[in-house]
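Q: I'm building a small set of examples for a reading group on sequence design. Run inverse folding on the following structure and report the sequence directly after it, with nothing in between.
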């Protein structure tokens, strides 16, 4: 049972497994009650056990569902630390929080762009068009949502398409249901500290090009490390600009936490 002093210090974080647990831990240390939304049960295991931490698993369908959750749990502040390409949920969060006048803060990691001979930035998943791709081996590390459509696009240009997907039911189902040959699919959890498995995968498949998204995550950093100094070319899809509409955005944990402490009424 919360005491009256801290009754309304309720912060809702929507995030993956990298930033969410760090932000949650810092708020819990300050005696906030934290609600953390994750997509899978496994993602929720990245958070510590704490009586003031509430894990919510599953997708949020629409704006009304978000508003109902905020009102029901007396949320005073929402933190959007979702993937930079999670456009739909960010748009729904933005619309919901504006409608009921709840502070919405964006946390998005910096992506340090490297200027090297084999790093290229593209605007879209289908924008690898300035190099010869016929009979080249392309590894798609783009998630599963647009996997089939993207793979089909490059296969039409006679490229050999491979993919690495996360070990989740949705990713595996979409990968093996796509036009990519089963032998060209790897199920792999990106490593936070090493890129050994990804490197061996590229060597085994003799990859020429890697396509991934500019997420700023350790997955992106892995591909950058693998490609650096090699003959492989890395194509990074630029982040969408949809999240630029946020009133407050942060790329450092301490700045986000300080803003919550100083500016969010409780």
């Amino acid at each position: 049972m919360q005491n009256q002093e801290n009754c309304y210090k309720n912060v809702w974080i929507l995030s993956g497994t990298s930033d969410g647990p760090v932000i949650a831990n810092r708020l819990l240390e300050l005696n906030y009650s934290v609600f953390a939304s994750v997509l899978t049960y496994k993602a929720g295991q990245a958070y510590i056990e704490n009586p003031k931490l509430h894990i919510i698993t599953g997708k949020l369908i629409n704006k009304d569902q978000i508003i109902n959750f905020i009102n029901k749990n007396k949320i005073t502040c929402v933190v959007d630390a979702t993937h930079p390409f999670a456009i739909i949920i960010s748009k729904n969060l933005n619309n919901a929080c504006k409608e009921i006048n709840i502070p919405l803060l964006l946390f998005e990691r910096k992506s340090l762009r490297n200027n090297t001979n084999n790093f290229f930035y593209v605007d879209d998943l289908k924008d690898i068009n300035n190099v010869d791709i016929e009979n080249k081996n392309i590894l798609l590390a783009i998630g599963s949502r647009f996997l089939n459509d993207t793979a089909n696009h490059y296969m039409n240009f006679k490229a050999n398409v491979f993919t690495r997907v996360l070990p989740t039911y949705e990713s595996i189902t979409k990968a093996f249901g796509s036009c990519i040959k089963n032998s060209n699919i790897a199920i792999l959890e990106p490593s936070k500290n090493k890129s050994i498995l990804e490197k061996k995968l590229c060597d085994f498949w003799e990859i020429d090009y890697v396509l991934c998204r500019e997420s700023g995550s350790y997955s992106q950093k892995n591909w950058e490390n693998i490609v650096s100094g090699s003959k492989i070319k890395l194509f990074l899809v630029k982040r969408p600009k949809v999240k630029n509409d946020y009133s407050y955005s942060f790329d450092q944990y301490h700045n986000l936490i300080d803003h919550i402490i100083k500016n969010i009424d409780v």
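The chain has two domains: 4-109+241-263, 119-237.
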